[in-house]
Amino acid sequence: MKSNDVDLKYKAALEYYEKGDYYRANQLLEQVMPLMTGREEAEKARFYYANTHYQQREYMLSAFQFRTFYETYPRSELAEEAMFLQAKSLYNDSPDFEQDQTSTVTAMESIQEFLVRYPTSQYAAEANTMFDDLSAKLDRKSFESARLYHKLRYYKSAVVAFTNFLRENPSSPYSEEASYLRIDSQYRYALESVPDKQQERFTEAIDFYQAFIDQYPDSRFLRSAEQVFASTQSELEKIKKTNPSNS
């Protein structure tokens, strides 16, 4: 660390790197990189430096350094790996679904950028798997947000949220439950509505039920959906008896 010999520092950095001591390798590479500009070793030194951050799970730093690498050395034989590792760094930095997902979207964009540039890459399969994982996380976030409205008894908002979720995520693993909860939310929304609006809103619950059983005839939520359907029909019968003109 105290030596002024660039070659000695770089050699020591590589030795630490090979031993997996990424902290010391990082410290030495950070010192020598500015002094290696124009030298043949500068390219690999920058790649190794980025990877020392990655190996220490400093993912935002590694993402920045890998991007700097492939923008500086776009024709390098390491550019493809650097671009992939930038995307993987952002993937690893993506938070749990409960948190803000802005960084997840950024990671997905980075993965897409990589796949467009290197569609036949040896890393393509892993990149696609990462993209699917992040997409599922966004699905979960959207579904849980809609379900929260239902739990808090904001039924009108829940219906809107579940409808949007089903339209935007038709093949989501949460679509079946979302479809059932939309029926239940609509029924409860109708139940709490003013009398003049109830028939229309109960009828919409019937429509949601029909769409649900058409798509999920063997659903694990079928019994619950049928109970809501029966209750909805009962409420409509009450309305018809009270207001024969609405029959």
From TrEMBL:
| Manganese recorded as keyword | no
Q: Is Membrane found in the keyword set?
A: yes
Residue ranges annotated for the Outer membrane lipoprotein BamD-like domain, each copy included: 10-159
Domain of life the protein comes from: Bacteria
Pfam (any one): TPR_6
Keyword vocabulary terms for this entry: Cell outer membrane, Membrane, Signal
What InterPro entries does the annotation carry? Answer: BamD, BamD-like, TPR-like_helical_dom_sf, TPR_rpt
NCBIfam families, from UniProt?
Answer: OM_YfiO
Name of the protein in its database record: Outer membrane lipoprotein BamD-like domain-containing protein
